Amino acid sequence: MAHHDHAHDGGACRDISHLLEGIKRFRQRFYEDNSELMHRLVDQGQSPPALVISCSDSRVDPTLLSDADPGQLFVVRNVANLVPPYDPAHHFDGAGAAIEYAVCHLKVDHIIVLGHAHCGGIKAMLGGAGGQWLQSDFIGNWVSMALDASRLQLSEKDAQGQPLLAPLERLKDNPALVERASVAGSLKNLMSYPWVRERVEAGNLVLHGWWFDLDSGDLWTTEPGGTQLMPVLD
Fold this sequence. Notes:
The protein is of the alpha/beta class. The chain folds into 2 domains: 15-45, no CATH class; 47-231, Carbonic anhydrase (Beta-carbonic Anhydrase, Chain A), CATH 3.40.1050.10. 42% of the residues lie in helices and 15% in strands. The protein has 10 helices and 8 strands. The chain has helices at residues 17-33, 35-44, 62-66, 94-105, 120-129, 139-143, 145-153, 168-173, 175-190, 194-201, and strands at residues 50-55, 73-78, 110-116, 156-157, 163-164, 206-212, 219-221, 230-231. Strands 2-1-3-6-7-8 form a 6-stranded mixed beta sheet, with helices on one face. A two-stranded antiparallel ribbon has the order 4-5. It starts with 16 loop residues before the first helix and ends with a strand.
């Protein structure tokens, strides 16, 4: 989620004609110079190997990051790359609908939850946890899903082995830890979807957590089926 840019409040709207030029270049590349791929995707339909659940942040585009061609990624983007827990009674759930379509109809082999550094949604969640909720109709309630997951992922254990939720002060001082813990929470929530769990346990679907460091361009990943994010080494 990008930070609100007050510099443009009340001013002239910025020109976006270069985006139209980009569309022209895309058309040249995939419809004129190399038309076979797009024609095949139209005639035979899409069959992407991976679903990516990523943040809406303008700096973290999964297709650009992975240099994927059309047809390779089925992408769900929302604020803070969150997966809500399975709740079929919640009829208007865009994330759940997209996950269901990717898993049950497109039969993807992989689901990647892609988080990133300097996530505005996580920043909003941490501010809200400290009593400084944004004035918003939707954002605060949405990002609050990440709070309990983060506190539990970063918890310590008591003498009986029960989790002691991480104090808010620790969370607020370590946003990158929270971002990575939130990815782990979303991976856990994915397993609450019965048709996801069924395919994972059958070995037909693998869950991955990724975290992109905006400062360095480094990528952190989980081991397939795990939740612990570690830097990818060259």
